[in-house]
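Attaching the record inline, Q. Sequence:
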Amino acid sequence: MSGSDHNVPQVHNGVSTLDEPSAAWGWHGLSRQAIQISGWISVAFLLAYHFGNHHGHVETIWLFAITALIVVGLLLNLFQPKLNQVRTVTAHNKPIDHVEPDWAHDQHTLSGVYADLTDSQLRSLNIDPATVRGRSGNHAIDA
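Structure, as predicted:
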C-alpha cells in the first residue's frame, strides 16, 4: 500500500472524517435556520392542502394535526437555548485551580461545610446529634 492510499483522519467541527466522511465538506448537520425555513415551508404546504376537492373531513383533521405537531416542534426548536449557553453556565464558571470537594465524604465525616451544622440541620440529614462525637450540642437557638 502506498503512502497516498492511507487516509489521515481530519477533524471538522468535532467530527472525524473516519466516523463521517462527509464532515470534511460540510454535509454533517443542519443548522437551526435551515430547519426553521424548511419547517415553515412545510407548514405552508400542509395548510394549502386544506383547499382541495375532498368532501370528507378526515383529511382535514389529519392535515391540521400534522401541521400543529410541526408548528409545536418548530417553536420548541426556535426558543430552546443554544447548547453552548447551557455548557457555559454549568462548566466554565469555575476558577482554573478549582477542585470540587468530595461532598459524600464531607457529609459522612461531618467535615468541611458539614462541620458546623445545627442539631436541626443534622436531623434533616437523618443524623442523630447525640451520636456525633465531640459535639456538645449546637442548637439553632444558641447561634
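Residues 58-79 form the longest helix (22 residues). The chain is about 45% helix and 5% strand.

More tomorrow.
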